């Protein structure tokens, strides 16, 4: 009888903890559908893929970071400015476009390039950081890459320029 009561208590506590977790993130249903799409993609791609993280500033600068992952390991981060229109300062030639391979990944720290993350890491950050419920921010989640994350993050209320905290992804494809 004691065993039955203990099991019942554990099941009850587990359901409370699980329900609290779900209430703490925005866009829960869309996120869960996207996670399932990711798990399917991960299996069919052998966890080998690439994607582009576009970036832009209100000043007119635009850039892209392309991340390549082979069997779950990041093998390359490539950065390129795509527009420097109306830029008032010169960007050194070696900073306009560059590539990091394997042991060099994320070695450039003073850059606007996206940090090299796998899609597993991105989904985890989405759940733990970008989609958590905040009273002072608007949260965004889109899955326009055949069900995979395309936009995930938040903007704090009252912020005017370059305020998005999160990630945007495009061109996710199998390697």
Explain the overall architecture.
There is one protein chain. With 175 residues, this protein is α+β, with helices and mostly antiparallel strands. It has one domain (27-174). Helices cover 31% and strands 31% of the residues. The strands form 2 sheets. The chain has a 5-stranded antiparallel β-sheet with strand order 4-3-2-1-8. A 3-stranded antiparallel β-sheet has the order 5-6-7, with helices on one face. Strand 6 and strand 7 form a beta hairpin. The longest helix has 22 residues, at 2-23. The protein is globular.
Average pLDDT for all residues: 86
Residue share in helices?
25-40%
Q: How many domains is the backbone divided into?
A: 1
Q: Ranges with pLDDT <50 over ≥5 residues? A: 1-23
User: Using DSSP, what is the number of strands?
Assistant: 8
Strand content: 25-35%
Distance between the termini: 55 Å
Q: State the secondary-structure class.
A: alpha+beta
Strand order of the largest sheet: 4-3-2-1-8
Oligomer: single chain
